[in-house]
Write a structure and sequence with these properties.
single chain; 424 residues; Rossmann fold; Elongation Factor Tu (Ef-tu), domain 3; 3 domains; 8-stranded mixed beta sheet; 6-stranded antiparallel barrel; EC 2.7.1.26; riboflavin kinase activity
Length: 424
């Protein structure tokens, strides 16, 4: 899979790469945050149609969520998001999304830096560029997609354009799953009281209760298979329901750093994941899940998870003479993919803690959120300086303050046993 990074100019225009002089393309567009089952359905359709049409499969993906960019602009007088600002509501980082696209078999991912100037272009202009520059003959979108200035490019408007010009075909994919639901306009994380309470609260409501709840939280309608719904579920510790929509275990990635090393003194050495986290951190609590060692951080591209190769090496392995100098990276998921595999020796069951360590916060004076994972293994594993992936399977219990270290150690032993039993 080839990755091409693109930054619009000050006017929002893009110098699109020439993929081929004669081979056409099947294209989709979006941020694909979380790469949930709806996203997978769209991207898989792109790959399948491209194979049938002997065309390139192309995903145009934004490296900042449009919603994040526009919200920041609205709150800061139209300013662009600073380069060093972290989108804490992003479900998955770029490398996580690229892995899925690589597995699906996408030929090209065009990574576009989403700017306000680019967003101000009309959908007609944008689609014209795709037809003229990328050779797009088929555009694949979700059933309720919208693009362009003011989101005027609805699927209805795009379909009319396709029929009027005859230059491309619009293919819609039913990516809604089992319909629609409602989520709060402002999501407030809620830590469950116990494991049984870590569920999708909406499922237990009757129609009257659901209407009352929706009105109280000033809700908005979203697809069941949507990033917004996944984000809400993770904020409520409804991990199983979120994973069902994602089609895989939700994960957060980062580099292991030295913490207070209090876990080692208690007999439970943990991997302390440094901030910022690459992915959406669920609500505070203790979880059952997995810890995966992705290797030394210095050998891993933190942005894309790709392996740098020269243009000459790329040209030697590219069909149809697409020797574009802008293509400087090729995504190789082999080593990372093998580490993530279920049978991988770099994967361990883990008790995962998110929170501010209430038992020791009075002593440390620290109340910032931390992410720690205790691997259930008898072997000593040195992960300092390594990039790791922490995957969540289920919520165990809330973060609580213990009266003594002995009580805490006893609970940690129970957590360890519960995790081992749950993940068998």
């Amino acid at each position: 899979m080839n990755l091409i990074e693109i930054t619009p100019d000050e006017s929002g225009n893009i110098d699109w790469p020439l993929l081929s002089t004669d081979k056409k393309s099947v294209v989709t567009v979006g941020s694909f945050d979380g790469m949930h089952r709806g996203h997978r359905a769209v991207v898989s359709t792109v790959a399948q149609l491209a194979k049938q049409q002997h065309a390139f499969s192309v995903v145009i993906m934004f490296d900042e969520r449009p919603a994040f960019v526009h919200q920041y602009a609205a709150e800061h007088g139209g300013a662009q998001v600073p380069e060093d600002m972290v989108d804490e509501d992003r479900i998955s980082g770029l490398s996580q999304r690229l892995r899925v696209m690589n597995e699906i078999g996408v030929d090209y991912v065009l990574l576009v830096h989403y700017t306000l100037e680019f967003a101000d272009k009309s959908f007609r202009f944008f689609i014209g560029q795709l037809v003229g520059k990328l050779g797009m003959r088929t555009l694949v979108l979700g059933a309720d997609a919208a693009m362009g200035a003011g989101r005027a490019g609805t699927v209805e408007a795009i379909d009319l354009l396709a029929q009027a010009t005859g230059m491309f075909e619009l293919v819609l994919v039913d990516d809604k799953g089992n319909g629609a639901t409602r989520v709060p306009r402002t999501i407030e994380p809620r830590m469950p009281k116990n494991a049984d309470d870590a569920t999708d609260m909406r499922q237990s409501m009757n129609k009257a209760e659901f209407r009352s709840w929706s009105k109280k939280i000033q809700s908005r309608e979203v697809r069941n298979w949507s990033s917004s719904n996944v984000r809400f579920l993770l904020s409520q510790a409804a991990i199983r329901e979120a994973n069902e929509i994602l089609g895989a275990a939700h994960g957060v990635e980062g580099v292991v750093t030295h913490g207070e090393e209090r876990g080692s003194t208690l007999g439970f050495p943990t991997a302390n994941v440094d901030t910022p986290f690459d992915g959406y951190l669920p609500v505070d609590g203790v979880y059952a899940g997995w810890l995966v060692d992705l290797g030394p951080a210095e050998s891993y591209d933190p942005k894309t998870g790709s392996v740098m190769i020269t243009d000459e090496e790329h040209a030697a392995h590219t069909d149809d003479g697409a020797h574009n100098a802008a293509i400087s990276q090729q995504y190789h998921g082999g080593s990372v993919k093998s580490r993530l595999a279920p049978e991988s020796p770099f994967r361990w069951k883990a008790a995962i803690s998110i929170g501010a360590k209430p038992t020791f916060s009075d002593q440390t004076g620290r109340n910032d959120r931390t992410l720690e994972a205790y691997a259930l293994t008898d072997d000593w594993i040195d992960l300092y300086g390594h990039r790791v992936r922490v995957e969540f399977e289920s919520f165990l219990r809330p973060q609580i303050k213990f009266d003594s270290k002995d009580e805490l150690v006893a609970q940690l032993e129970r957590d360890k046993k519960t995790v081992d039993e749950l993940l068998k």
